[in-house]
Amino acid sequence: MSMSSHQSLSDLIRLEIQKASGWLGFDRFMGMALYAPGHGYYSGHRSPFGAQGDFVTAPAISPWYGDCLARQIIQVLDTIGSDQVLEFGAGDGRLAAQILNYAEQIKRPIGYQIIELSAGLKKQQQDRIGQASADAFAQVSWLERLPDPGFRGVMLAHEVLDAMPVRLFVHRCEPQAQVQWFERGLGLKASGQARDDSPPWQFVDRLCDPSWAIRLEALKHACQQQWQEDWPDGMIIEWHEQAQAWIRSLAGVLEQGLLLLIDYGFPAHEYYLPQREEGTLMTHRQHRAGTEVLAHPGEQDVSVHVDFTSMARVALEEGMNLSGYCAQARFLMNMGLLDIASSWAQSQGNLNSVQAMSQLAGVQKLLSEAEMGELFKFMALSRGLENLDLIGFRQGDRSGRLGLQAC
Ligand SMILES: C[S@@+](CC[C@H](N)C(=O)[O-])C[C@H]1O[C@@H](n2cnc3c(N)ncnc32)[C@H](O)[C@@H]1O
After folding, report:
1. What is the CA radius of gyration of the chain?
2. Could you tell me if the CB of 34 is within 6 A of ligand 1?
């Protein structure tokens, strides 16, 4: 991203703060930093993915990742007699290419649709899927908006929820004082405070209205049923308002099938542990993680972990079912990743080659608890699949740990 577009995104944010009478909610800042047309991190022309970008996601770690997802998707499609897959935010198109490639190999046609907010990424997806297979490319279409209600098939959101803006609230409870709730936003620094190398805005907390305080107290009460400690003074609560609204809108569209959510995160009582008092917001730039979320808007990724309890809760409120929730390692093993890897290894003459070692290292990274195996979760939200035993969630299902009765 060029300096001038950086400056103009800063100008736009500054203007937005002024237009909002000097205080802009963090969610609106995050939305602009990621998606401001032409300037946001995901709306610019630079690709965030891969070695030259800022981060790597699972499909780039092993091609078998997409095979595992494809098997789960096809089980659902076969059950309901559909061929429709809808992927949100398809990144560099690698996962779509892997799923389509698997379907082509087993001769199972899929009508693959993608909703992509970024024009640059859409082009990248078209190039990658087209290069992988002309037949696969012919099965893909890009939608500008959600389909009409009546969708039957599988919806897929791979690391999409973590890129949705959150509201920030601050729990204040000085000793002896009553609890007070503030919302965290941005205000402009006084001219003397602004330095060239720091953003011209800073965090400003303002008392939140009583309806929010009631919701936040209810969340605290629900989580405290799992642990006895109070939240400390200054504890940050990330509220996934946009992600919740998004799930509600998908629930309105899905007539029969599966919404598969894949992301890093926890159930509410772990997400809002008193020890996690700083929250989970983080930045990624050139493969380095950081916490300076207000700096360099448009030039670094800003993401947040997912509170999976709240995702399941809104889906249930909309009449969907929770058909499974488990850690990534468990889903991939249920889908046979180790069998795929071991058949492949047996077919190889030399497992000491660089290519063989990198394939097997990829599997290790996806499964290892210390890497992605435990932090990343798979959640299956469904409608009209009551009698289907989803392969990916057969063993190690943790739906019971979401605390849905309490939260
Ligand atoms: C971290 S990237 C993940 C990309 C890709 N799925 C992967 O795993 O490599 C997050 C993506 O979610 C997309 N996104 C966020 N909100 C979205 C929405 N409401 N609809 C579609 N895509 C969305 C962003 O544009 C971005 O491309």
Report:
1. 22
2. no
